[in-house]
Amino acid sequence: MEKKLTEPEFLDGIEEAIKYDHIYAVYQPQINHSTKRMIGAEALMRWKHPVFGVQMPGDFIPVLEKNNLIFTADLHIFELVCRFQRKCMDERRPMIPISVNMSRYDIYNKDYVGEIEKIRLKYDVPVEYLRIEITESSAIGGSELMKSVLEKLHGLGYLVEMDDFGSGYSSLNILKDLEVDIIKLDMRFLQGKVGGRGGAILGSVIQMANWLNTPVIAEGVESIDQADYMKSIGCNYIQGYLYSRPLEESDFFEAIARVIHEPLQKTVDLLKNMDASKFWNPASLETLIFSNFVGPACVFSYEDGKTEMLRVNDKYLREIGMSVTEKEIIGTDPWVNISEEGRRSYEKVIKRAIETGEEKEHEGWRKADSKCCGENRICVRSHIRVIGTAGKQYLIYALVQNVTAEKRKFDEYSENERRFKAAFEQANVYAWEWDIETKEMRPCFRCMRDLGLPPVVENYPEPAIEAGIFPPDYADMYRGWMKDIANGCGTKEGIIPLTVGRVPFYVRYTTEFDENGRPMKAYGSATLVVENKE
Ligand code: C2E
Ligand code: CA
Ligand code: CA
Questions:
Q1: 148-179 b/e with 16+ CB inside 10 Å = b?
Q2: Do 284 and 253 share a structural domain?
Q3: Whose alpha carbon is nearest atom 19 of ligand 1?
Q4: What pLDDT was estimated at residue 242?
C-alpha cells in the first residue's frame, strides 16, 4: 500500500530506516549534451518504507531538518555513495564522480567535513570521485560559516557545487564570497522564461560563469529543446529526465559501464591579468567598467560574426543617446543599427583585436535608438579589447565615444575648405592649407602646377625654403610665422617677395581652431601684389 507518511511516522521510523538502508540513494547521471558522455551523477535520497512504499525527499527532508536528524541521514547517504564507489573500485569497474547533497543544517554545530572525511577514508575512495552540493540558501545568513566549510572541503580536495543557483535573489553576491567549482542552474526556476529576455539574462549568467571558468550544469532538463537551448548559450552539461530519471543503484551500476565518461571541462581562458571573481560580481564588474576603464563602456560577446550585448554602463547609454535601461539592452544584438558595410569594418577590427590581443580602434556610423532626439545617425568611436575567450566565443570590452559632433564639424570644415579653394582657383591667387600637428602642407592645383609642388609637402615650410620659394633672407621670418600660428596666434599677413624672381606677394594665414581652442589647420593664400602704375 502506497502512502505518504506523516511527520510522527517519519520521526518514529528514521532510526530503523537508516539502520536497514530503507533510506538509500538513487543516482541521476549528468551528461554532456554535445558528446553524450557522462560527466558525473547526483545521489538523491529515497526512503522506501517496507509497508508504505517510496517516500520522496520533498516530504521527509524538511521534517528531518526541523528535528535535527538530517545530519545523520546525509552522512548515511555519503556512506552509501562511498560504499558504491568502493565496489566499483574493487570490481575494477569504470568510475564516475558522484555528488552528495549537504543540507544547510549539516554545518550548524556539527563537524560535517570531519565526519565525511572519516567515512571517505574508511572506504578509501579518492576524493575526486566525491563532490558536495551546497545550496544557495545554506549560504544566506551564515556565509562566514559556509565559507569556512568550503575552505575545509577545498583543502581536502573536494569539488563543491552550488545547487539551485538562481533560485534566490542574491545569487551573484553569494558567488563573490563562495568560490564554488560548479554551478547548477535549475531549469524549473526559469518557468518558461527560456528564450526572450529571461533567456538572454540566463545566457549572460552562463557566459559569465564560463568566463569565470566555472562549469554550469543545467538541472531539470526535460526536453531536447531545453537542452539545445542551453547548449546554444554555452551550457553543455545536463542533468534531467531528458537523459535519465534517477536510477536505482543496480541500474546506475550498469549505466556507468554502458556510457563513455569524460571529465568536467573548464573551457575558458580568462586573460591572466583579469580577476575572475571580480568579473563575475556585478558590483566589481561595475568597478571594472567604471574604474579600471573610465568612461562609457559595454561588454559584448562575439562568435563567428554574431554579437550579443552582455553589459553596458549608464555612461554608455547616455553617450550613445539611448533612452533604455541596461536590462532592455542586454541580450540584444549591438549591431542591429549598423549597416552591412559598417559591420564588416567593425568585424575586421574585432578580428585584429582577437589576433593581437591589443586594444584596437574603430569608428563608424549607426542609427541611434533614441525616440526623443532629432539625431538619428550617430558616429561612434570604439576602443575594443578582448578580455576573455570561451571556445570560439570572445568576450569583448568596448570603451565608446560619441564623435558625431566632431565628425559633423569636420565635414563642415572640408565643405568650407572646398568652397574656399574653389574661390581661390577663380581669383588670381595661390592657396594651401597647413596641418599644424603633422606639419603637412597641401597646395592648391595652381601651386602644384606653377611651383612644381607635390600634393602633400611634409615638414612645411622647410622644403619650400630649400626650394627657394621663400628667399633665404625671409626664411627665419617665415619660420617665425609658422611658429606663431602653431601657438595659436590666429592670423598672419604681410608682403613677401617670392621665388628667385622676388615677385611680391601678399601672404595671409587664417587659422581654424577645434572646440577646445587648439589650432588645427591654417589656410594660407598668396596674392600677387599688383603695383599701381598710375
Ligand atoms: P535537488 O538537489 O535540486 O535535486 C534535484 C531534484 O530534481 C531531484 O528531486 C530530482 O529527482 C529532480 N529532477 C531531476 N531531473 C528532473 C527533471 O527533468 N524534471 C523534474 N521535474 N525533476 C527533476 P528529488 O530527488 O525529489 O529531490 C528533491 C530535493 O531533495 C533535492 O533537490 C534536494 O534538495 C533534496 N535532497 C535529495 N537528496 C538529498 C540528500 O541526500 N540530502 C539532502 N540534504 N537533501 C537531499
Ligand atoms: Ca542537489
Ligand atoms: Ca538542484
A1: ebbebbeeeebbbbbbbbbebeebbbbbbebb
A2: no
A3: 220
A4: 96
Q: Cα separation of 438 and 60, whole Å?
A: 80
Residue 283 above 60 pLDDT?
Answer: no
Mean pLDDT of 118-138: 92
Q: Is the pLDDT of residue 534 over 50?
A: no
Local structure of residue 367 (DSSP, 8 states) = E
Look at residue 2 and tell me if it is in a domain.
no
503-513: strand order across its sheet: 440-443, 429-435, 519-528, 503-513, 491-498
- Distance (Å, rounded) from C-alpha 239 to C-alpha 252? 14
- Ligand 1: residues with CB < 6 A are 28, 44-45, 56-58, 61, 70, 74, 77, 101, 103, 163-164, 219-222, 240-241, 246
Residue 57 covered by a domain: yes
Q: For 157-161, 177-181, 235-239, 517-521, which range has the lowest pLDDT when averaged over its residues?
A: 177-181
Q: Which ligand is nearest to the CA of 185?
A: 3
Cβ–Cβ < 8 Å for 77, 101:
yes
Residue nearest to atom 11 of ligand 1 (CA): 246
CA distance 6 to 9: 5
Question: What range does the domain containing 367 cover?
Answer: 276-402
How far apart, in whole angstroms, are the C-alpha atoms of residue 431 and residue 418? 11
Is 318 inside a domain boundary? yes
- pLDDT (average), residues 112-117: 97
User: Which grid cell is 281?
Assistant: 560580481
Residue 346 lies in a domain: yes
Whether 107 and 156 map to the same domain: the answer is yes
Nearest 5°: the CA angle 188, 267, 347 is: 100
Q: What is the pLDDT of residues 355-375, one digit of tens each?
A: 988 888 898 888 876 555 555
Mean pLDDT of the chain: 83
Give the least confident one: 116-120, 205-209, 402-406, 417-421.
417-421
Closest ligand to the CA of 30: 1
Q: What share of the chain is helix, strand, coil (3-state, %, to 5)?
A: 40, 25, 30
Q: How far is ligand 3, taken at its centre, from the CA of residue 102, in Å? A: 11
Same domain, 151 and 20: yes
Specify the CATH number for the domain of residue 350.
3.30.450.20
Contact (CB, 8 A) for 267 and 259: no
Q: Residue 106 CA: which ligand 1 atom is closest? A: 44
| Distance from C-alpha of 123 to C-alpha of 252, rounded to nearest angstrom | 20
Question: If we measure between CA atoms, which residue out of 515, 514, 478, 503 comes closest to residue 493?
Answer: 478
How wide is the angle at C-alpha 6 spanned by C-alphas 5 and 7, nearest 5°?
Answer: 125
The rounded distance, in Å, linking the Cα atoms of 337 and 448 is: 43
